[in-house]
Amino acid sequence: MYQLIKRDGKAKRGRFTTVHGVIETPVFMNVGTAAAIKGAVSTMDLQEIGTQVELSNTYHLHVRPGDEVVKKMGGLHKFMVWDKPILTDSGGFQVFSLAGLRKIKEEGVKFNSHIDGRKIFMGPEESMQIQSNLASTIAMAFDECPPSTASRDYIQNSVERTYRWLVRCKNEMARLNSLPDTINPHQMLFGINQGGIYEDIRIENAKEIAKLDLDGYAVGGLAVGESHEEMYRILDEVVPYLPLEKPVYLMGVGTPANILEAVDRGVDFFDCVYPSRNGRHGHVYTKYGKLNLFNAKYELDQKPIEEGCQCPACRHYSRGYIRHLLKAKEMLGMRLCVLHNLYFYNHLMEEIRTAIEEGRYKEFKKAKLEGMEQGE
Predict the structure, then answer these.
(1) 70, 167, 229, 363 - which has most CB atoms within 10 Å?
(2) 93 annotated to a ligand binding site
(3) Is 271 in the active site?
(4) Is 272 annotated as a binding residue?
(5) pTM of whole model > 0.90?
(6) At which positions is substrate bound (predicted)?
(7) Mean pLDDT of 323-333
């Protein structure tokens, strides 16, 4: 259930009520691919740094430990000890990016596991069954994410097949939610808009999927090789055709600047591996842009990563100490950087929500972008 609280231009301030709690939007979902945030960050840490939604990966949990195992353990919330919303992606992106040899047919996709090479088949029904076993709050529809370099004909055919798969996902989820042994019978379904960089294909697809009255809508297949300008152009064209009274999720995006720009175009939900991946490599986000703590200039720096930041790293530790940990390959260094970056993203979303509520989003976005470009 999505409530639109305020609009400032196209920017939306919303509230999405789920069986696992209320999500204040715009929101950044913290990515825990295999039911954990990489960098030794626990779900207790996630609570402390203001995380609203955790995102886990259907494909990875299907191959290890197995979605049946997670179901026997009481579902993902119980398994990883997290009582707030969880979104699971459909596995589609991993099937197409990791699987190498694969065969796409109307029924679904045959491919080899990247862990042990065993043959796996995944289609719309299988993806919904796996996600039902995981018992996430929000399940994503199974789709093909075609490469940005694919031909127009290929993308047209792919989008039409993804639409047919979406209808099958919706029907299968309704069936699964009605079964007596389903852990979360209130599981929600988001459909995914595809179409590469062809706005006419995307707009037509957006109109079609909007008719299905789903719980939310995602824009997929961006941030896969096209320029930022192309991504913003597609959002400008497509978002107006997705229902205003439903959340819009831009998948796999992105940098703080990407998020600020996409919010301005009406996007509610975001996820990206950048904060955790960059943190593990000593790259940390600040209001002045990104710092690389491996740089020698931080060796004797007694300041926190960012002055005034209330994350666990900045409240206690200096740049000099964290740099030492990273250089010594101590896991604590990675952990502190990941905690800081996730806190930075979650706190940025809080600031975005407040700016929209107060009707000053345009000025806020301009000031934030200018600050990040200055460098420290």
Answers:
(1) 70
(2) yes
(3) yes
(4) no
(5) yes
(6) 89-93, 143, 194, 221
(7) 98
Report the DSSP pairing between strands 11-18 and 21-25. antiparallel
> Would you state the pLDDT for residue 281?
98
| Lowest mean per-residue pLDDT among 117-126, 248-257, 352-361 | 117-126
CA distance 19 to 92: 25
Domains of the chain: 2-272 (3.20.20.105), 279-374 (no CATH)
Q: What is the pLDDT of residue 248?
A: 98
What lies within 8 Å, CB to CB, of 236 at 6+ separation is: 265
156 appears as a binding residue in the annotation: no
- Taking residues 321-336, report their average pLDDT: 98
Tell me how far CA of residue 368 lies from CA of 45, 193, 371, in angstroms: 26, 29, 5
Phi, psi (5° rounding) for residue 122?
-135, 130
Tokens 């008719």 correspond to what residue?
A: 211
Active site residue 89: yes
DSSP readout, 211-268? Answer: TT--SEEEE-S-SSSS-HHHHHHHHHHHGGGS-TTS-EEETT---HHHHHHHHTTT--
Pick the catalytic residue: 89, 215, 264, 268?
89
The answer to whether 145 is a known ligand-binding residue is no
Could you tell me the CA-to-CA distances from 143 to 93, 122, 159, 174, 197 in Å, in that order? 8, 11, 8, 18, 17
Find the catalytic residue in 215, 264, 268, 271. Answer: 271
- pLDDT value of position 344: 98
Q: Picking from 63-72, 115-124, 234-243, which range would have the lowest pLDDT averaged per residue? A: 115-124
